[in-house]
Amino acid sequence: MKLWRALPVVAALLLLTPNASWVYPIDGYVLTGIRRLERLRLRLVGELDGTVPVGGGRQRIADIWLHAVRTGGAVGNTAPGGIPAGDAPIRAGGLDTDFPEPDAALSREIERLFSDRDPSYSLALLEITPGRPMRFASMRPDVLYSPGSVGKLAIAVGLFAELARRYPDDVDSRQTLLRNREVTAGKWIVQDHHKVPLFDPDTREVGFRRIRQGDVFSLYEWLDHMLSASANAAASTVWKEVMLMRVFGRDYPPAPAAEDSFFTETPRAELQKIAVSVVNDPLRELGIGEDEWRQGSFFTRAGKRIVPGVKSYASPRALLLFLLRIEQGRVVDVWSSLELKRLMYMTEKRIRYASSPALAEAAVYFKSGSLYRCKKEPGFQCGKYQGNVDNYMNSVAIVEKPDGRLYLVALMSNVLKINSAVEHQTLATYIDRILAR
User: Fold this and answer.
1) Do residues 424 and 415 touch, judged by C-beta distance below 8 A?
2) Which of 135, 168, 184, 234 could potentially form a cystine with 226 if both were Cys, beta carbons 3.0 to 4.6 Å apart?
3) Are the CB atoms for 392 and 146 separated by under 8 Å?
4) What contacts 379, CB < 8 A, 6 or more positions away?
5) Which one is predicted more confidently, 160 or 76?
């Protein structure tokens, strides 16, 4: 099968049809070359069998905005999804302080929700519905957890930061590089259990499997596999590319021999320093401290063997601030913030927190991460997301409801012996009800 092969017609189509009616993210194939999106579009128009997204998963580019926070406690739309691609990115304004004082009524509701639940839960919640005062509530927001796959957001930000470093005033060139740079899966992908969707728009052949060495995807598709399918192989590959961007600069992409020489001849301590810098420096620019969120190690065994890592951790407050910075257009710049928000948009099957029926008609921009471990214990049966040694489950979400409500949430937990995926889904329903009141 040739499902993974890049299509040479993509660039031509982009030049001929820059304003296609079917648009990113649900129909962004022409703009990005992400073939998964074309598969979804064909399903929606009835030309291909298969599951279609829920109502809230069918947004178009004109529907996706950055809701930049204004001073004075009110919020409003300041950056539409249709930012012209040729415009130089600008900084969006923000509050003098990151979060308002906790809302008393909202805080009481949150305390009541968790009063009889395990004390390992931590939450940070911010409502920024346009035209209303901001509402903030939290519960143990500074507790540090292993972030799991939520840390893949830091890798994405690192990539956007390096793109901005190379093309500070040219977002067209950034997008062209994302679309046209093809990367072959190599040793970095070993080992990963996540499967990714594969689609050939010419033959309409559909596949769903683990990434294999020799597969070829564009940077856009590697990003999509990392965030949509949460593939560890994609995360390690993207992080490797971000390191190459930093080191080779204008000479990126390097020849394969130069790439191999860099990773084999550079001292391991220096590789670690570069790896930590490229994905964490952009977080520091957002006001997220070293003691609040750090992504420290690769997501595959091979990646960790090549580049030694350090401990990863994050807190709900740091992750909530990150979501707020997206809405403010301050994650690198407005274009990068909006592009990241598109890549977080849930169009495929929704899972964990985002799978709550209460959010079915909402647009959800989401990432989750889990890490569970088990040991033998009489009367206990180990299962997915219900470890008895560790059972981390982390969810971050921007939720836009059809009635106009808009809120950001970061929920982290380490509750042993329960199905934490189901528990996060349940909590999403309760939190949405609280905010509706």
Assistant:
1) no
2) 234
3) yes
4) none
5) 160
User: Would you mind telling me the total number of residues written for the chain in this entry?
Assistant: 437
State both tokens at 318: 């740091």
User: What CA–CA distance (Å, rounded) separates 283 from 82?
Assistant: 26
Alpha helices per DSSP H over 149-204 = 152-166, 171-180
State how far the Cα of 216 lies from the Cα of 99, in Å rounded to an integer.
43
H or E stretch at 391: strand 390-400
Phi, psi of 109 (to 5 degrees): -65, -40
**Residue 146 in contact with residue 320, Cβ under 8 Å?**
no
Residue 378 CA to residue 215 CA, distance in Å, equals 44
Match 């999509």 to its residue by tokens.
224
State the number of CA atoms in the 13 A half-sphere of 85 facing the CB: 13
Mean pLDDT of 184-196: 94
Share the mean pLDDT of the chain: 87
pLDDT in tens, 266-310: 999 999 999 999 999 999 999 999 999 999 999 999 999 999 999
Query: Is residue 25 reached through a cis peptide bond, with omega within 30 degrees of 0 on the bond before it?
Result: yes
Mean pLDDT of 175-198: 95
Q: Do 194 and 210 form a contact (C-beta atoms < 8 A)?
A: yes
Q: How far is CA 335 from CA 141, 172, 221, 289, 294, in A?
A: 29, 10, 18, 24, 24
Residue 93 DSSP symbol:
P
**How far, in Å, CA of 132 to CA of 73, rounded?**
8
How far is it, in rounded angstroms, from Cα 52 to Cα 437?
Answer: 31
Q: Report the DSSP beta bridge partners of residue 182.
A: 218
Residue 60, pLDDT score: 82
Kindly state the DSSP code that residue 126 receives in the 8-state scheme: E
Q: Which of 66-75, 168-177, 337-346 has the lowest average pLDDT?
A: 66-75
How far is Cα 257 from Cα 264, in angstroms, rounded to an integer? 11
Type and span of the H or E element at 138: strand 135-139
Yes or no: say if 398 and 59 are a contact pair by the CB < 8 Å rule: no
Distance CA 111, CA 101 (A): 16
Residue 313 · residue 144 · CB < 8 Å: yes
Eight-class DSSP state of 389 = S
pLDDT band at 44 (very low <50, low <70, confident <90, very high): confident
